[in-house]
Amino acid sequence: MGGMPTVRTPSRQALIDHLVRTRIAGDVATPRENNLEHYRELAAGNRYYWLGLELGDRWTDEDAVLKVMAERCGVVADPAHRTGQDTIDPELTVEALERMAVVLRKAAAGKQRVLLATGHPGGLLGVHLATAAALRAAGCEIVGIPQGLRADDGRVLQMGGVAMVLRGAALVHTHSPDPMAAILDAMEREGRPLPHLVVADHGWAGCAGQRGIEAVGYADCNDPALFLGEAEGSLRVTVPLDDHVEPGHYEPMTAYLLSAAGLAE
Questions:
Q1: Structural domain includes residue 106
Q2: What residues contact residue 189 under an 8 Å CB cut-off, 6+ apart?
Q3: What InterPro entries does this protein map onto (predicted)?
């Protein structure tokens, strides 16, 4: 699954149509009830939903969280909509990809140290692998992680320049910030320079942003923390998408991102 996307780069409108057709955006699979439950838990202080960010008492109003999610993700803004279908605005997805492309272009121009990681290997690993390969080809240093690390009851390892967790023989779906914390703590102990940029998702991105590292990431409509982090400036960009559709469906999106960043072959 490494290397650059093999699909042709779509136009902006073609990508929007693709996102809606594959339900990466538009009418997504995550139900409204699940979204609101997660917003409520975050507002109640449940740190599992903070994704490594320290939100303090700034987001204790569930309706305030919903307002940000409507603005930055495109969920239904009406608080009275409590059940059934919810949405991600594909225009917001593409706009966020274009903002992420600006960050990637800057990283490539500066030959920056970049650390990539995913807690959603079943969906987003291909996106991160292609991004790592493109940045490496552009002269960036893809940060190698320290060896022997453990978090989330598994091994923290790296494949194709992307960090993730392996538990037994399975790659792990995790929103925890602990694996990224383990990586950054080990780098500091070893006196290694920290990355200039982290490209990740969920707790991996949240942890990096909380540590003051420039971070961009992907998050679903039921994971509000990274969108709040973007609103507060802890993260540079959060791309809204359904993070667990068929992996091949993300290829046109990845091609669009890397082309916009000037990193396509």
A1: yes
A2: none
A3: Phosphatase_SCO2771
